[in-house]
């Protein structure tokens, strides 16, 4: 029954398959004692800018948003950085670490159709996925860049339905960003929230269907 219900699985990239906070190591080398704080604020601002730009209808791609949010962090935390250090941190985004167990979960979920649907631009996603050695796992790597608006706009989730040719009800959407899982649920996907930190569900009026604590639990949950 599980097999027919979830004909395809669509994954969020940043924070779900890839650990955005793997940049903290490089941040710590540049600003000792501040690596984790820089990484946390960088991610928070990056997401805020995606939502704000979408509401303003002033889309710029995720590379620009990621750069602008790092500029903000340096100004807000009053930290010095050279052009080369800034460039090295932006480069880190092209080789983020995968979460432990993520690659195995992808292998266990085959031969279902798997896809990525991300805020990332193709120019950011492609090298990151290649670096992780998982390009062959996906039937499609989809970017919000083709609709020029960020998650959780419904037009973004529609990209997966159109690209995979599978009805929304048969696509399981997987995200560790609760607001993204809620957005996908509101759109019409059955959703899996990977809640690694034991956080409460966001009060957005569309709760995820399944709450798992890591990606290793996903193959069994999908098959149940
Ligand atoms: C992604 O779309 C939400 O940043 C997250 O990959």
Q: Would you summarize the structure shown here?
A:
The mean pLDDT is 96. The chain has two domains: 139 residues, HAD superfamily/HAD-like (Rossmann fold); 73 residues, DNA polymerase, domain 1. It is built from ten helices and eight strands.
Structure, explained:
With 224 residues, this protein is an alpha/beta fold. It folds into 2 domains: 8-18 and 96-223, HAD superfamily/HAD-like (Rossmann fold), CATH 3.40.50.1000; 20-92, Orthogonal Bundle (DNA polymerase, domain 1), CATH 1.10.150. The chain is 46% helix and 13% strand. The protein has 10 helices and 8 strands. The chain has a 6-stranded parallel beta sheet with strand order 5-4-1-6-7-8, with helices on both faces. The protein has a two-stranded antiparallel sheet with strand order 2-3. Helix 3 (35-56) crosses helix 4 (62-76). 38% of the residues are buried. The structure holds (2S)-2-hydroxypropanoic acid. (2S)-2-hydroxypropanoic acid (2OP) binds at residues 12-15, 118-120, 151, 177, 180.
């Amino acid at each position: 029954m599980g097999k027919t219900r979830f004909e395809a699985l669509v994954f969020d990239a940043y924070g779900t398959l890839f650990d955005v906070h793997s940049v903290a190591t490089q941040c710590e080398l540049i600003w000792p004692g501040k690596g984790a704080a820089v990484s946390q604020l960088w991610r928070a601002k990056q997401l805020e800018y995606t939502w704000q730009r979408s509401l303003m209808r002033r889309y710029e791609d995720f590379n620009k948003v990621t750069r602008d949010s790092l500029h903000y962090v340096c100004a807000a935390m009053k930290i010095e950085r050279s052009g080369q250090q800034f460039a090295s941190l932006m480069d880190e985004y092209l080789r983020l670490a995968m979460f432990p167990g993520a690659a195995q979960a992808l292998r266990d979920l085959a031969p279902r159709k798997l896809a990525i649907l991300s805020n990332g631009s193709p120019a950011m996603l492609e090298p990151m996925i290649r670096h992780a050695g998982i390009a062959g796992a996906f039937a499609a790597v989809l970017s919000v860049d083709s609709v020029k608006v960020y998650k959780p706009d419904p037009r973004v989730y529609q990209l997966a339905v159109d690209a995979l040719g599978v009805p929304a009800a048969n696509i399981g959407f997987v995200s560790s960003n609760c607001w993204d899982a809620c957005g996908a649920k509101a759109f019409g996907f059955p959703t899996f929230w990977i809640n690694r930190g034991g956080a409460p569900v966001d009060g957005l009026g569309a709760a995820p269907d399944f709450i798992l604590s890591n990606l290793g639990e996903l193959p069994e949950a999908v098959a149940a």
